[in-house]
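Here is an idea for our session: we take a single protein and study its fold together. Which protein we use is up to you, so please pick one and set it down. Once you have written the record down, we can walk along the chain together:
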Amino acid sequence: MSIKSQKANMKAIYGLVSQDLSYIFGERESGPNGAKKQFHSKSKAFLRALGNDLGLKEFKVSSNYAGIAVSGEITLRGTWPDGSGVYFQLSQRLGDKQEFVYSSISHMKDYSSGQNQWMDADLFMVQDYETVLEMLLALRSPAAADEAATATDAIFNAGVTIKSDTKPEVVSRHAA
């Protein structure tokens, strides 16, 4: 997916988390045009492309709609060839300040490795894809992080998406 498409997805995701996704106003909200469904659909597309842009060797994008009182969450979990990994979750938080959680992981089934960190959703409002990439790439091992910074610069200087030597493998996709 192009950087332009990723920025458009960021804008759409920000617009969706800026409204109340936790209350279902009837059948239409659950239907094909419902805001909660759009949030999950846009977020899954964004995270799949993000996994490729991060150069992950292996990744999984999952979606949990949860109940009517919450937005649910969409999660990217993946590892780089060096063995380090990333966990990034998009969901709507209670309160005025919207943030997304991310942390490092050491393998695909790691649910407790790194300390949670918070990404301000305003990065999505201003469509700052480069900063999102940099924040997530910083979770890599130090030597790999330096290499990743060079790759990030190349992505934005060339205006094209660069993939790692190893094609990422989608481990599983959960149906909406």
